[in-house]
Design brief:
Order of helices and strands: HHEEEEEHEEEEEEEEEEEEEEEE
Number of strands: 21
Strand content: over 45%
Number of helices: 3
Length: 312
């Protein structure tokens, strides 16, 4: 064997010691996309807590007495498990080495996780998400509480109580929420199926809502426009407060109760009663009684226009 052949064979022997780049890529991809297949027995009205920092969360109600979790677990997350008892369960995505949910350094290093859950239709839900859009569908009977930072929350459910706090994500509600508390800073609120009690608050998001008959509904907006349509209970109270956003309220022709509306610098038009301009500076007000009911409607805007329309 000459020196050239000896060097070539030595090079070939060394070659397997250098890992192939495509092999490491395949290993990393496998680690980054860990499939989730979890099951746990659950009562029909179980309380289920769900947390996810990045990715997405989808919750679907079904008629089985169990919780099923599928999807993909992001790289850097701790192994996922369904913890708790049949009546009180938790599913939490946490970064490796974390001591709590708000471990920001670990959260930033963790890849997105996608959770797909099937839960008993009558379950109550408590959901915390940060950069994760949320979808809930098919829940019937349980209460729902959601805290979200930047993901949109879509809730299609029949629930006695719905509470959503959102920073920059929008809120979309469908089904029926007998009591609703929906708050967002910059996201829009779409809630066409509100029940007897509701509180809606936004800073810059638009609000489009409907429902009733309302025993009590309060709506507050800083700069977002408001469109509200629905029926007031005979002794109900409807209150709307807006700073610079426009407000449009549609009421059935048979609405009863005392109506008070005012705007400091915006335009006010109404199909009920006649607005009057202030005799001492800017502003316009409207005070009139509709029917004989004990209900009360109070609407105030500062610079936004106000429209009160009769819904035939």
């Amino acid at each position: 064997m000459n020196e050239f052949e000896w060097r070539r064979q030595l090079r070939d022997l060394r070659q397997p010691l250098r890992p192939r780049r495509d092999l490491w890529t395949s290993i990393e991809a496998a680690l980054a996309d860990t499939p989730i297949h979890l099951h746990h027995d659950a009562t029909a009205a179980a309380h289920i807590s769900i947390s996810n920092v990045k990715g997405s969360v989808t919750v679907i109600g079904w008629d089985r007495p169990e919780v099923e979790v599928a999807g993909q677990l992001g790289e850097g997350a701790r192994p996922l498990a369904i913890t708790g008892s049949d009546a009180d369960l938790a599913v939490k995505v946490e970064p490796q080495g974390s001591s709590g949910w708000f471990n920001w350094r670990g959260d930033n290093a963790m890849a997105p996780s996608s959770l797909e859950l099937h839960v008993p239709r009558g379950a109550s839900l408590e959901i915390h998400v940060i950069s994760a859009p949320l979808t809930v569908d098919g829940i019937d009977g349980g209460s729902i509480v959601v805290n979200t930072v930047s993901g949109k929350a879509r809730i299609n459910a029949r629930t006695p109580s719905l509470k959503i706090d959102s920073i920059s994500g929008g809120i979309e509600q469908a089904g029926h929420a007998e009591r609703a508390d929906l708050q967002t800073v910059s996201g829009d609120i779409l809630a066409p199926a509100l029940g007897s009690e509701a509180r809606l608050q936004t800073v810059s998001g638009h609000v489009q809502a409907a429902g009733g008959p309302w025993r009590k509904l309060t709506l507050s907006s800083v700069s977002g426009d408001v469109q509200l349509a629905g029926k007031l209970a005979s002794d109900g109270h409807l209150g709307i407060d807006s700073m610079s956003g426009d407000v449009q309220l549609q009421l059935p022709a048979d609405t009863t109760g005392a109506l008070h509306a005012s705007s400091f610098s915006g335009d006010l038009r109404s199909d009920f009663g006649t607005p009057q301009k202030s005799g001492h500076g800017p502003g316009v007000t409207l005070d009139t009684r509709l029917g004989t009911g004990r209900g009360r409607i109070d609407i105030e805007t500062f610079s936004g226009d106000l429209r009160i329309r009769r819904q035939d």
